[in-house]
């Protein structure tokens, strides 16, 4: 297959390019410097040049808080551009895999959210991402939408790298303990996305690591797995206000993925250990606590 990765310089895009390099697929990658996904002409030119069998769109406005202050700029990337990509792919018989987010939900759930749950975004960022999903669905029957959450990858910026930096700068950390999710390493997510494309899967899929924790629990695990001793104190979301409300519960049930007969993605803590090893910061000794 010829697979084009748009947003190839981001955390997930880089990992997809790495994974695809180890397969028999012909992979190409483009980013903002070489394609403007807001411009139909730019997208059409790219697809005519590459002639892919599938496009994986990782490009997005990911500055969640800035989407509140720059809503039109965020909307063009997250809501309008996916429709442009869908039109271009549809005209050429190309499968489009579009990445989305847990922010399309309101965070009020108390059990893992499956793919059939009704979205109810509470932020400009979430509304834009949902509109992008809806554009893809309405324009292109042969589409694949993958929602993920709490993502981190090799290059950053991300929560893991921020915690490692702060743990080295401060005597103790304070991290929110009332928001739940499944930290997901791109090293586990990218191969699963490639697998869906290889299977010519269509529809909406949730893909996250197995297990759940809070941001506080994730931070404690980062510090411990890195062999550091900085205390991490739990705080409430109200103690750390942000322009964009964060979902209190972002645990996604990966039911559609498992319905294909695929194994669940590995536990989130396993992903964290692998990520730290890849960066050369994991301790030589065994961690004090195992499992997710």
N- to C-terminal separation? 35 Å
Helix content: 25-40%
Spatial extent as radius of gyration: 19 Å
What is the molecular shape? globular
The name of the CATH topology of the domain at 2-158 and 184-211 and 251-266 is Rossmann fold
- Reading off the top of the CATH hierarchy, the class of the domain at 2-158 and 184-211 and 251-266 is best stated as Alpha Beta
What is the helix/strand order? EHEHEHHEHEEHEEEHEEHEHH
Low-confidence stretches: 287-292
User: How many helix segments?
Assistant: 10
Mean pLDDT: 95
Beta-strand content bin: 15-25%
Please provide a brief summary of the model.
The protein contains ten helices and twelve strands.
Task: Tell me what you see in this structure.
It contains ten helices and twelve strands. The chain is globular and about 55 Å long. It has a six-stranded parallel β-sheet, with helices on both faces. Strands 6-9 form a two-stranded parallel sheet. The chain has 292 residues and is of the alpha/beta class. The chain has a domain at 2-158 and 184-211 and 251-266: Rossmann fold. Helices cover 40% and strands 16% of the residues. Residues 287-292 have low confidence and may be disordered. The chain has helices at residues 11-21, 40-50, 66-69, 71-92, 124-139, 159-169, 186-198, 215-225, 255-259, 268-279, and strands at 2-6, 26-30, 54-57, 95-101, 143-148, 151-152, 173-176, 180-181, 184-185, 203-206, 213-214, 232-235. Helix 5 links the parallel strand 4 (95-101) and strand 5 (143-148).
